[in-house]
Amino acid sequence: MKVLILGGKGLLGGALAKAFLGHNVIVWDRAELDIADETSARKKIPELRPELIINCAAWNDVDGAEDHPDQAERLNGTAVGSLAAIARELGVTIIHYSTDYVFDGTNREGYDEDASPNPINAYGRSKALGERLLREAIDEFYLIRTSRLYGPRPESPAAKISFVLRIAELARLKREVSSVDEESGAFTYVKDLAEATRRLVRDSAPYGIYHLTSSGQATWYQCAKEIVSSLGLATVVRPVPRSAYPVRRVIPPYTLLRSTKVPHLRDWKIALRDFLTTNPI
């Protein structure tokens, strides 16, 4: 099967390329295709004739979306609708990734796949727009919501460095680090997410929305503590309130994604230790 991965040199794209080994994997990053350029996408993708399109290209500067909402909506929203329309015209499946930030975070019990999005910041609104346009354009889709991704340093120098990698590097350099002890969420290893994505395709799972995150949740502080412990470091981790690190966006306080269709991925602590002990930091 010819698999086209868009955003292929980013954090998730690199993991997907490995997960789909054995297929004819084509990796495109922005240098090969700017997905916001619909004219170029309508020319290049049909010429390639992929049998599966996986889109993990995205605007992921969450605070930057507050300053540039139009750019975020063009990449996370309008471009997704265009890709879905191209996939429909080619008669192929499209996989697209979204976020827990499409919800307002007021439900402590979490959100299942059928919950109605209610984003409270510009990034969340841009991702919710992409979800809506995807669903309007095509029936043969997997819309995968996930959260707080981490993994090895991406190949693309423009890609965002994950919280886990940033804390791991700081903890090796400093005697003390501080982290926000608020905003619980599921920290998810991209390797696990990519492998779960392949299973959906392999098993011909029903099309629709899926929630794929690690089991369990933690605050940023709790995750930072686990990182330091897993690395065997003596670095002290101090809990601080969000006000110590103010941001421009409004942050949903509880963003647990409940999965009613497939099992959650493995426990977040187990996945985190696996990553930290098998990858050079």
Automatic annotation (TrEMBL):
UniProt KW keywords: NADP, Oxidoreductase
Sequence ranges assigned to domain RmlD-like substrate binding in this UniProt record: 1-277
GO cellular component labels: cytosol
GO MF, one example: dTDP-4-dehydrorhamnose reductase activity
Domain of life (superkingdom): Bacteria
Pathway the protein contributes to: Carbohydrate biosynthesis; dTDP-L-rhamnose biosynthesis
Family label: Belongs to the dTDP-4-dehydrorhamnose reductase family.
Known function: Catalyzes the reduction of dTDP-6-deoxy-L-lyxo-4-hexulose to yield dTDP-L-rhamnose.
Protein name, entry field: dTDP-4-dehydrorhamnose reductase
